[in-house]
Amino acid sequence: MAKITQKLSGEPESSWQVPYEDKFLDSEGKVITGDVMLDGMKRPELWEGDVRIAFFFHYLQPTKPLRTPFGEVKLPEITPRPKRLRFMKYLPVD
């Protein structure tokens, strides 16, 4: 997950943001099935098949793509959070 980032102009790559509060979700994206940081290494089955992961991203720049191990991903238009993800709670950065 630390390889998912977004370029911050004028900042070293070590200062770029990465996903925060990343959670594995069930196939419908309605239930948390694990915590990426806590369960990702000890439960390899969470990475098998179609995988859904929801996360927050501090200081997201919606007009810029995310960089991933699979290439750049253009972000979709901003929309209200889907009802199925209302259980996800954002904690602001200090």
Explain what this protein looks like in three dimensions.
- It is a single chain.
- With 94 residues, the protein is mainly beta.
- It has one domain.
- 4% of the residues lie in helices and 22% in strands.
- It has 1 helix and 5 strands.
- A 3-stranded antiparallel β-sheet has the order 2-1-3.
- The radius of gyration is 14 Å and the shape is globular.
- The model has no long low-confidence stretch (mean pLDDT 91).
What's this model, at a glance?
The protein is mainly β and 94 residues long. Helix content is 4%, strand content 22%. Strands 2-1-3 form a 3-stranded antiparallel sheet.
Based on the structure, what is the oligomeric state of the protein chains? single chain
For the biggest sheet, the summary is: 3 strands, antiparallel
Distance between the terminal alpha carbons, to the nearest Å? 22 Å
Residue-averaged pLDDT: 91
- Class based on secondary structure composition and strand pairing: mainly beta
> Runs with pLDDT <50, length 5+?
none
Shape: globular
The portion of residues forming beta strands comes to: 15-25%
Taken in chain order, the helices and strands follow as EEHEEE
- Give a count of the beta strands, DSSP E runs of length 2 or more: 5
Contiguous helical run count: 1
Helix amount, in percent? under 10%
| Count of distinct structural domains | 1
Strand order of the largest sheet: 2-1-3
Q: What gyration radius follows from the Cα positions, in whole Å?
A: 14 Å
